[in-house]
Structure formats: structure tokens, C-alpha cells
Batch of 3 targets.
Target 1
Amino acid sequence: MNRHIDYEEEYHGNDKKASRKERRIASNTDRSKFKKTDLKKVKSTVSNSSSSRGRVLSITGEGILISSNDQTYLCSIRGHLKKERTRNKNILAVGDFVYFQILNSEQGQILDVEDRKSILERVDVSGRKRQLLAANIDQVFITTSLVKPPLKPFLIDRYIIAARKGNMEPIIVVNKIDLLKGKGSRSKEVLEQKKLYKSFLHAYKHMGIQIIAVSCETNENMDLLEDMMINKASVFSGQSGVGKSSLINLILDLNLPVKKIIERTRKGAHTTTAATLIPLKKGGFCIDTPGIKSFGLWDVKKEDIIGHFIEIQESSKDCKFQNCKHIHEPGCAVLLAVKEGKIDPLLYESYATLIEGGTDEFTYY
């Protein structure tokens, strides 16, 4: 059975008895050094010390792999950083810039994390903690596919909102475009996907987001995708089985593991088990993240959701009630605009799913 491994959780450990023992020990020591004001002093001391600066390449059960001055070091985390976990599932993300102390030619200890310019985050599977997926990224390639697995606009909207909230440019990559042509293209399943894809393109053309259709089988638009990555830090993220690793393999001439779709469910199995920062020969970096089955938005307000749907935001100005959710309230200008065809039904359905709590196996928090 293919199991997705949370390597950082594994690295930090998940032993409740050990955690209780650590808390008892900590309670008998001077905890003042863990106050926020003192943590700021630690940051200042670290950045001005003789420590080295590096970037997180990957996080494994053995430690954090750091790249610095064309060398790599397997690092542990200094104790005071672990006190900052609070509601965060993980302290570090691939792409983070850190200060660390070199212990020998292969090992080091992370002392501090630089402030992030951007972050891709979500709610973890428990629904209670913030999970960091990637940091200091310029653009998110929101990777989806057609037919196997099918296109899911609702999931794409969650990624777009998360990318913009995290200060990154969202770009939609639709893989397996070849499945709409040639053999089998007249099947009921493919015809339904063609119809949905056409509606999707029509609905999202006004959102100011670039959409690129590609194929790993025919190499369609692969050169364009590669050009978009030059001298930028990019992350490929999306549903399991959409072909993220296959795209990266073709562009970078790598051999990342890939697996076929589970035919019975049309869903992908997790192949990438941990995010990895990969340098590009023409300049820049890319990250292949593990596939997901759910993507809960972290710390997103109603205003963030409405702001994503521009047409809904504009129509909402004419609603009878200022706090209208645009679901079933009387005098709702948004509902009227949907009825009159001024707002695309696909966009509205996605908005309503987000606002009401998410029922399409994807969860909004």
C-alpha cells in the first residue's frame, strides 16, 4: 500500500510520553529565554554572528537538507525554534532561507529562519494546524488534468486564493490535454470533460490568471512551460495523479518516480512523498510537492473569498443587506446576477461551496 509520509512530523517525533517528559523538564528550567522579546534577541545575534546562510532543499526523517555555497549539510533544529511551533504543524518549509552553524563537512544545526517573502500553506489533515508547503516562491503552477483524474475547478479556486494570500502568482497548468483528442475522444466521459473544460475556460478568462494546456504525451506547450520557469522559484502543486512529477521529469530531464492512475477510482496515488527544491540549469528553482486529496484554506476570511470572485464582489455592492452571504438572503444582487446570466454558474457554485464550508471532499476552514 502506498502511504504518504509526513517526514517533518516523523523527524520531530510524535511520542506523547516523550513530549510530556520534555514539558516537565522545561517547566523546571528558566523559560524566560523562550519569550518573544528574547527570541528577537536570538534572531539579531544569529544574523550578526559567524553562522552560515543556506536554503532548505528537503525535509526527511533524518533531518533537514540545507544548501549553502554549493555544499549540502544535513541539519538538526536548535531547541528555541521548536518552541515556536504553536499552531504550526511544521517549523520549516522547503525553500526557507535559514542561518545555521556548520558542525562538520556534512552536518549542521539550524539557528534561525529568515522572514519569508511568500508562503504556500494549508490546513493539515487534522483540521487544527497550519501546514507550510513551500516558502519564498515566485509562482505556483496549480496543476490539474483532464479525464484521469478529472478537472476539479473547486480545488483550483482554493489554490488560487492560497497563492494570492501567500504573495505568489498563480498559474493554472492543465495537463493531459491529449486525452480530449484521438482515440476514445467520443466516449461519454471525455465528452463531459470537454464540456466542463470549455465552461472552465469561459468562466476563468476574466480572472487575470494565465492558463496553459500541456501534455506529457505529445509535449504540447512544454517549451512554453519551461520558459516560464527560468530565473524564478516555482512550485508545482495539485491533486494526486495529475502529472506534476511527469512534467518536471520532461522539463528538467530527471527521473522522479511516477505512477499510473488507479483505474477504479480515477484517482492518483501519492508518488512524491516529500517536497524537494530542485535547481534549474537555466536559472531558478522548482519544487515538486506531494499530491493531495484535500486542500483546506488556512486563516481565510469571507472578504478574501469574495475578493477572489471579482464579478461576485462587484454585484455584492447592490445587495439589500451589508452582511449578505449571497446564498439565500432576500434582496441579494449576486443571486439575481446569476439568474440573469451575468455571473457564471461555475464560479458561483465554487464560491458557494467555499462559503458554506466545502462539501466537494475539499474543506474550507
Target 2
Amino acid sequence: MFVGTYLVSVTSGKRTSIPSVFRQKIGQSAILAKWYENCLVLVGNDSWSALLDRLTGGERMIIEPIRETEHFIFASAYEVDIDDQGRIVLPDRLVVYAGLGEQVYFLGVGDRIEIWNKELWEKKEAEVAKEAASYIERLAKRDGK
């Protein structure tokens, strides 16, 4: 399980280091792709299929919402190798999509790692903190508790 938030630098060559606590769990190669809310997702190769099944609800029919989810994620995905120092190169296309700059946040979010633009995450984190209690209430009502 991935947990925690880490601020990391990005070089001019778009190389960044995966926080060591995440590297120990992710392995030597991973999949990097667009994710929701203008961030990126990073998962180990062995976890990729499970994440996609979770997104699509394990649907076997290729209906429009499944196709569109696959287009959004698969078409943007890159296999990335993690070097001996735990670094990856961020593809230009993904850097532009997520608006990444000289510093990025790596977030451990259970079964995945998200990579966020520094300013965007700080704004989002403040919004989530402000609404956290109402999110919990809504989830509890949904589950009938």
C-alpha cells in the first residue's frame, strides 16, 4: 500500500526521483499515465491490470464508458524504467497534461501513486481538507450507516 505525500524536484531533462518508500514497493519498471483531475498515475507493472479492473468494475463488455476510460488511460500510458537511483523520465506529453514544473508532489493513494503539479495539489489539498467531514457523511449515508 502506498501512503504519504512527498515533494520532489524535476530536472530540466524531466527526470525525477520516486520517493524511496514507494520505490521499495513498485519494482524496477512501472506504468505512467494520465489520471483524473490533471495528475498522473504511476503503478507497478504487476498492479496495472488490477487498477484498470477497479476502474471499469471488471466489465467484460466494451461499452462506451469503458472505451472512453480505456482511451483516456491506455492511450496516454508509458512503460517507464526506474534506474538504480530510483529515477524516471517524465514524457513530454504527460508533463504538459499535468502542468508539471520544477517540483511535483508524489502522493501514495493506496493502490497507486499520483504525481501532481505542486500548486494544483496544494490548492486541492486545502479544498479536500475543508470538505473532508462532508465527504465522510455522504459516504456513510450511501453505505446506509
Target 3
Amino acid sequence: MNFLFNEEQTSLGETVGQVLADFAALTAPDPSRDSEAEVWGALAELGLFSLLVPEEHDGVGLAFVDLAPSIEALGSGLASPLIASTLVATEAIKRLGSSDQRAKLLPEIAIGETAIAIASAELGRGKDPFFAECRLLDGKLSGKKIAVAGADVAQELLVIARTESAPVLVLVPTDAAGVTITAHSDIDPSAGLCRVVFDNVAVAAGQQLARASIDALDTLVDLGATVHSGMAMGIAEVMLRRSVAFASQREQFGKPIGSFQAIKHRCADLAVAVEAGKATSHYAFWACSENSEDRSGAASAAKAYCGEIGCNACNDAIQVHGGMGFTWELGLHRYLRRAQVIEHAVGSRAWHYDRVVTEALAAREVENAAHRDAA
């Protein structure tokens, strides 16, 4: 069995990376959003947003796993998190949306006209993506969301809310009456994190993506966690590449510093971590694509593990570069900032590790019950 990506999947990821490389502002020392609209337009022209859209809705109809190399390219290029959120929302709409929702939204997404920001985190329990004090009662949505990437430029919000009986996913236009969006002051200004307040926003029945379904929330969290794991590995790979390049060129005592044991071992450990993290992330992409039984466990394992690797890789790269690694001009801080945002998005590392343990124990109980029944 071949677990490697094929030529088309790899080539697509490389093309996305080349497009992002044309926008130097994305990875420049100053964390601005000046080129965000131009980047979105370039990726829309490339056809990135049509890849997950089925052919009957004017898309390409690729599987979720096919985009893994492209997601890594988005991470390594420090592209706007709104791009990744829109791809996650596309897959969620494809799986969970009604025929009318798919017919209306997917063609608009495919051509890049509709961007969708995912609103899940809230104050108080921001580490738990399922937590929702945001309420949908009698067709009115009220509550607050934080750290909503790109909400100020998106056309739609995909909101995790709660009715009297169960959680729901709701699509809300950003220009709807009662929606107030304000930018956060946060560690990574280029991520475009926003605070969103809903004040008795009217929500029609057709705006609910999946009515009263915990399985729908599981699906959204699994997709989001997996995509963020891919972006984290994109960052980690850049940090590895830059660390090795610097260690090969920078000389001390007449030798490249990469020949010294302390630097050599740090780079070697980072290379091992990157390979292990990518394998974990790639499996999560496959598990989500195939909707396998261990999808949730695989997605949470990837999110927690890869998020940790991404942050550690940035810290290792700064250490390898020595004193200049801490300077603003070198720009390594840009990757560390984004890695921190990714690590805390769609649930914290601790929450996802707890979920992995819960999933593993549940699977073991099912297995033990099967053995008892067989006996």
C-alpha cells in the first residue's frame, strides 16, 4: 500500500506555495494584512476554493485528503487563516448542508466570492470548541464569540450555538442586523482575529446547517483540527529548512555551526519531529476523508501533537539562529506568532489530548465487550 501523495496532490501544494511566495508581505517582519485581498484573489484565480466543491456545483470534486499538501503550503506561507476556515466550511457544507444550502453557497465559494469564518471560541471556556453560551431561541441568536479569524472581511459566519435542547451550526451573514464585529488586539495581527457579538440576530430555519446534532459538531471540529495540524506542520517544515540552511552557512571557529554537536542534534531532533508530525497529520486527513471510525481520535491527536511541534520548531529555529534569531528583522517571530494562534484554535492542546484518551478508552471498552460476547 502506498501512503505517499501522488504527483497531482504534491504539484497542487507546490503551486499554492509558489503563489503565496509572490507576496513577500505575508512573511515580512511586520505582521500586516495589506496583501490579504490580493492573496485571496490569486488563490481564487488558481481555483483553490473550487477543489472541494462537487462537480455538480461548479467545482473540481476532490477529496479532503487531496488538499493536505496545499494546507501545509498555506501554513508555511502564513496565509490568512480565513482561507483555511473557508475550506473547512466548504467541506462541512458539503457533508452537512441541505440541498438548498449546497446549491446556494458552494458555487459562490468555488469562485472565491464567499468567504466563511468559523465562530466557535467563547470567553470562559475558549479551550473547549464544543462549549457554547451563544443561544438560538425562538429564531433569535444572541451571544459573543472571540478569536474569529477574518470575520471582518468574510461574507458568512459559521457559528456554533445552542438551542434549549441541543447544539446547532448556524450560517449567519456578517452584514445581518444585530451582528457587531470588532478586531482583537492579539499576538498575531496578520491573523485577523475578531470579536463577534450577536444581539437578537434573526435566524431562519434554512440557516441551520445541521439541526440539533452533536455529530455535526464532531465533524466540524475534526475537519478544523486536521486543517490546523496541516498548517502547523507547514510552519515546522519552514523552520527546519531555515535552521539547516543557517547552520550550514554560519561559521564559528572556522567551521559551520551545524558541525557542532549541540546544533547538529537540535536540527536532527527537529527533522524527526517534523516527519512524525506530518505522518500524524496526513493520517488525520485520510481519516476525515474516509470518515473512518477513529476520525475524531486521529484529528485530535494531529491537532495536539502537530500544534506542539509547530511551536517547538519555531523556538528551536530561534535558538539555532542565536542572538539574531530574536531580532525583528529576521522575521522568525512571524512564524512563532502564527504557530501560537494555530495551537489554540479549534480547542487547546490539553483538550484534544483528553479527547484522544476518551476516544481510546471508548474503543477499548467496545473491544472488550465484543470479546465478552464472543466468550
